[in-house]
């Protein structure tokens, strides 16, 4: 519940600023109301004016020492909210208002006497005025007093300024907190711009600044991944140069050597046939390497276009198995069709999908155990078709299973010529499947020592 309230109140920076302004306005209004209520009748000028009015009203009719005059004096005192008393020249009270206690009032003024030289000397918050009056034609003194706190002009100034200062302080504290966070984000962005990708900003609050910090963190993460990908691609580029140089140089060196032997006149005819056959094999291998490289480069280009049509994929699989029948028999590998479908029509580029299955089946023949089986399974769903080719691998580094779709990666780390291949067969498979909007992945079962290649193609 608390988190929900925080989200409502502070989920937006503009909303937070609006709440701050409303809060500051409320504080100002409350302080002003308190000031107004607390300040009623407390101005010195007001007290003096009212005391003078009380004097004028009482001096006109209180001229004798009688009950009626004392009653009038009491009415004037109540009307102006003052204590009033008249003394003779010795300070003896001869007339008084009823709010002056018979035994002494709340200001500890004695009932019958007021010290003329030091009236209310023990009181710190009494406003009073003394006027000369005539009572029974004798000179007397009218005392008008009130228990009140008289505020100085500085007090009024501070009372007005205090709410403003408080409002500014509230705004400053809350805005400064946001400003410091913005400054921190700016400094951390500088760190990111200096190249420290992956650096994360501390995410605070629930407003737009929090969203900004999150997006900067996501950007930092993505940039780091992009840089790592670029570094990996750069590494693969060097590996490409090294591997293709090795793969092309080896048959080329052999080819040149045998051609030199052929050119020697001392060489017998039977040797010439032998050397020419070896040269022909190496030339074919060079052509295969160059063809794979050319095809992969073409597939990776953005200008590649697919010639799609409605084709029976089961028929393509059958054709590929027929073309590889002799090769699989020589390797003592049996392909098992673990599916009953005779027709699965998909909108595909037939030549390229044929290349997919041909590369996968060829790869299975090269790296399967002698005398083992390669199972071909098909799973259909309303939206896609999944082809699974599973074989018993001869040898495989478990931690490098996911690398088999990388360019120029071969299961034979030594790149022995006895195991033919450019290392581009499965990357070509991946490129073709991706162009069709499908996906390809592998699953390794270490217990059964099998490797399954999954090709998923969409039906539409």
From TrEMBL:
Primary location group: membrane
Pfam families given in the database record: HAMP (PF00672), HATPase_c (PF02518), HisKA (PF00512)
Membrane topology: Multi-pass membrane protein
All copies of domain Histidine kinase, residue ranges: 243-460
Annotated keywords: ATP-binding, Cell membrane, Coiled coil, Kinase, Membrane, Nucleotide-binding, Phosphoprotein, Transferase, Transmembrane, Transmembrane helix, Two-component regulatory system
Transmembrane regions: 12-36, 155-175
Reactions performed catalytically: ATP + protein L-histidine = ADP + protein N-phospho-L-histidine
Signal peptide: none
SUPFAM superfamilies: ATPase domain of HSP90 chaperone/DNA topoisomerase II/histidine kinase, HAMP domain-like, Homodimeric domain of signal transducing histidine kinase
GO molecular function: ATP binding; phosphorelay sensor kinase activity
Subcellular location(s) of the protein: Cell membrane
GO cellular component, one term: plasma membrane
Protein name, entry field: histidine kinase
Organism: Clostridium paridis
